[in-house]
């Protein structure tokens, strides 16, 4: 399965409803993200986030397969999270690899240095999703993804 961020493993075909099956449910949470391409720093925003990845809205996405380090700024945190990611897919003016998503940008798969970092960040994302959506809506989202 895959999620909108491209973070899932083993993509499933689109179902009869036109919706993709997703490994990790996603929530529409906008966070500031900063990263560097060559010697230029970029500051963009996420469109959504899941435990496996995020979608970064940008007019200048990195190439598919690019691994990079980025900072994710979360309002409740004193310091940003510094994470590694890999570009899983892009939507550009020339080509939309995910035409069902109207914005230009890139789907990012999180790359964790170890299981402890993965568990810690996934727990944080889950808490952030509960805060943003409320417990009832979050539970429905999780149940729907199963």
Give the helix/strand layout:
Layout (H helix, E strand, L loop, with lengths): L31 E6 L2 E10 L3 E5 L9 E7 L7 E11 L13 E7 L3 H19 L1 H11 L1
Antiparallel strand pairs: 1-2, 1-4, 2-3, 3-6, 4-5, 5-6
Helix pairs in contact: 1-2
Q: Can you tell me about this structure?
A:
- By secondary structure, the chain is α+β, with helices and mostly antiparallel strands.
- The chain has one domain: Thrombin, subunit H (Beta Barrel).
- It has two helices and six strands; from the N terminus they run ββββββαα.
- It has helices at 115-133, 135-145, and strands at 32-37, 40-49, 53-57, 67-73, 81-91, 105-111.
- It has a six-stranded antiparallel beta barrel with strand order 1-2-3-6-5-4.
- Helix 1 packs across helix 2.
- It is globular and about 40 Å long.
- The chain starts with 31 loop residues before the first strand and ends with a helix.
- Mean pLDDT is 79; it is low at 1-21.
């Amino acid at each position: 399965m895959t999620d909108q961020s491209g973070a899932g493993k083993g993509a499933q075909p689109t179902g009869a409803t036109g919706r993709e099956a997703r490994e990790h449910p996603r929530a529409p949470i906008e966070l500031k993200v900063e990263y560097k391409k060559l010697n230029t720093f970029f500051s963009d925003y996420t469109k959504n986030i899941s435990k496996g990845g995020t979608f970064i809205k940008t007019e200048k996405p990195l190439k598919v397969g690019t691994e990079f380090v980025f900072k994710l700024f979360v309002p409740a945190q004193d310091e940003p999270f510094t994470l590694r990611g890999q570009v899983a897919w892009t939507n550009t003016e020339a080509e939309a690899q995910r035409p069902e998503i109207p914005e230009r940008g890139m789907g990012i798969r999180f790359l964790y240095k170890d299981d402890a970092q993965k568990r810690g960040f996934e727990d944080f994302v889950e808490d952030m999703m509960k805060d943003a959506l409320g417990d009832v809506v979050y539970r429905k989202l999780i149940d729907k993804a199963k």
